[in-house]
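> forwarded from #structure-qc
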């Protein structure tokens, strides 16, 4: 059950979101009181749902948060005393309430978490039916990606502005470069080991372990090679093997630890680097993945090749990152030196 305990620690819950009544199971894991009241089998199935059915740690943390938030809402209702009291109308009312405070994708994710949890409880004979089965979430059709995208000049300016006289600066530049030139998700980048940057013939390659257990390998861009080489040599980790490639720092000392960076730390680093350039619009780690794909397509690359390089299952997913037309409209209406198009 340690997996559940670890994932719960990653969940950030807004004030007042958690119920006043919860029970701690083995390993210190928090179980909603309404689930604990249903008995040991219910508690076990609740814990197993997250530990067994969800492999991705980010998805697991999001689903833990969604389910605990729902049961917090149930805990405040007088007409719900046990799991069997939860009906479709309750879940429908909860989902409508979420829609007032959250965007549609978030609402749909919460509903999916609740529906999947109750499916698991039904198969475990904890409850007879799934009250979320008939509840429909908000319609949400995405045709244009919403990720902020930089122009090639803006991306170059951001990279060139990093102070690489420090080891942390070399690390940050290399990390951003992997996201940009290898179209990599931040989760895959911070999970890289030293051995995931390796020689293959005359070229150096990067190996990424993407979501869904995908192992993705591609040749490194010559700029990416230069940035990674500079960082690895300065850090003295060329023979690190299975050791983390991108390592966390000890406060502001500039000294790197033996532990890998967390994706949240990487996000904060990106915010600082963007702020150094006076950006008036916040960018995120996914910005560099979208920027790399868009730059590749602008240079004449095909959608099919971009799909393969980004490890997307469908070209429709890759198309969402193609911000060429959207960026052109933004550039025409903007004269700011570093105004990030949205």
């Amino acid at each position: 059950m340690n997996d559940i305990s670890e994932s719960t620690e990653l969940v950030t819950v807004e004030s007042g979101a958690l119920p006043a009544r919860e029970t701690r199971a083995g390993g210190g894991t928090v179980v909603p009181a309404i689930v604990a009241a249903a008995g040991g089998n219910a508690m076990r199935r609740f814990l197993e749902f997250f530990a067994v059915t969800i492999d991705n740690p980010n998805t697991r943390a999001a689903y833990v948060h969604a389910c605990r938030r729902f049961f917090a809402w149930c805990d405040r209702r007088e007409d719900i005393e046990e799991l069997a009291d939860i009906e479709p109308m309750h879940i429908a009312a909860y989902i409508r309430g979420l829609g007032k405070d959250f965007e549609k994708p978030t609402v749909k994710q919460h509903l999916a978490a609740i529906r999947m949890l109750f499916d698991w409880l039904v198969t475990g004979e904890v409850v007879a039916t799934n009250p979320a089965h008939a509840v429909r979430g908000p319609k949400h059709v995405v045709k244009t990606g919403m990720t902020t995208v930089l122009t090639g000049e803006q991306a170059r300016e951001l990279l060139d502005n990093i102070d690489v006289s420090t080891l942390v600066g070399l690390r940050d530049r290399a990390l951003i470069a992997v996201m940009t030139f290898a179209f990599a998700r931040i989760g895959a980048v911070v999970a890289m080991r030293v051995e995931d940057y390796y020689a293959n013939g005359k070229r150096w390659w990067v190996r990424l372990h993407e979501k869904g257990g995908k192992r993705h390998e591609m040749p490194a861009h010559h700029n990416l090679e230069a940035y990674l080489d500079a960082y690895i040599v300065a850090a003295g980790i060329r023979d690190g093997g299975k050791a983390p490639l991108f390592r966390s720092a000890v406060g502001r000392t500039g000294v790197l630890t033996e532990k890998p960076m967390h994706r949240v730390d990487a996000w904060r680093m990106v915010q600082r680097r963007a702020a150094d350039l006076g950006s008036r619009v916040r960018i995120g780690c996914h910005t560099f993945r979208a920027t790399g794909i868009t730059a590749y397509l602008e240079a004449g690359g095909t959608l099919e090749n971009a799909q393969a390089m980004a490890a997307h299952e469908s070209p429709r997913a890759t198309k969402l990152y193609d911000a060429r037309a959207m960026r052109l409209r933004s550039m025409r209406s903007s004269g700011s030196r570093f105004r990030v198009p949205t």
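QC bot note: The CA atoms of residues 179 and 289 lie 5 Å apart. Confidence is low (pLDDT under 50) at residues 1-20, 325-342.
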